[in-house]
Amino acid sequence: MALQEAFKMKPLLINQEINDELDALKRKLGVNTEVMLPGLPRTFSRKNIRFELPLDRKSLKDMTPLDYLRSNTSITGSCLVIYSRVFEKYNTNSETRTIHENKLIPALGEVMGRQFSNQEAIDLHQMIGWSDGQILTYREWCGLCGAAERLIGHRFVPQPLSKVQDPCNEVENADFALLDRWLQDLSPNSLLYKLLTLIKNT
Q1: In the Cβ-directed half-sphere of 193, how many Cα atoms lie within 13 Å?
Q2: pLDDT for the residue 43
Q3: Could you identify which of 22, 104, 136, 175 might form a hypothetical disulfide with 53, taking C-beta atoms 3.0 to 4.6 angstroms apart as the criterion?
Q4: How far is 197 from 138, CA to CA, in rounded Å?
């Protein structure tokens, strides 16, 4: 079982730092720096997102999927830049730094490289189960983006890589090898049980 890191994600970058890193990323990809985020070509790798299990398995009993994603998701730098830039655009409260539920799907569309179809939006909502009117923090937003990439990213690229071609991080593999034990205290019908099983199998 991997030890939990004190902080799963870097602190939120200030606007100019985000812009500079995003422009550098666009140049690396050969994309015009004036192109908006939905025009960026996206590739999704399992190594960019690492999901872990908490040290205390009983803590899962009181977690929602967003609780889990907030505390147990690690994001690599290039993805974090994109997530942060989109968060800044859709941030609904400059003081509390949050994003409203009614902006999630349009914002996630920018992260994923194109807007969601109605069915894709329904499918992701059923996997995560956010509430109507829910307000998400930055960490919850990043966890949600990571889950979207892992769980439905294959629908957004022409040739998704198999798990053999693109394996998960070794730490994640070690954690999720113990998943059955960690799920003993959860109902198979709970959203978190289903989410963790999907993460392991996707």
Answers
A1: 12
A2: 82
A3: 175
A4: 25
Q: Where are any strands of DSSP class E within the chain? A: 49-51, 73-75, 98-100, 135-137
Integer angstrom CA distances of residue 169 from 47, 172, 175, 177, 194? 5, 5, 10, 12, 21
| DSSP-based three-state secondary structure for 137 | strand
Cα–Cα distance measured from residue 98 to residue 157, given in angstroms and rounded to the nearest whole number? 29
Q: What is the pLDDT of residues 122-160, one digit of tens each?
A: 999 999 999 999 999 999 999 999 999 999 999 999 999
4 bridge partner residues:
none
The number of angstroms, rounded, from the C-alpha of 49 to the middle of its chain's C-alpha atoms is 7
State the DSSP string of 143-191: HHHHHHHHHHGGGGSSSPPPTTTSPPPHHHHHHHTTHHHHTTTS-TTSH
Stated as kind and residue range, the H or E segment containing 79 is helix 77-90
CB atoms within 10 A of CB 202: 14
Q: What is the model's pLDDT at position 32?
A: 44
Take residue 57 and report the two structure tokens written for it.
């398995």
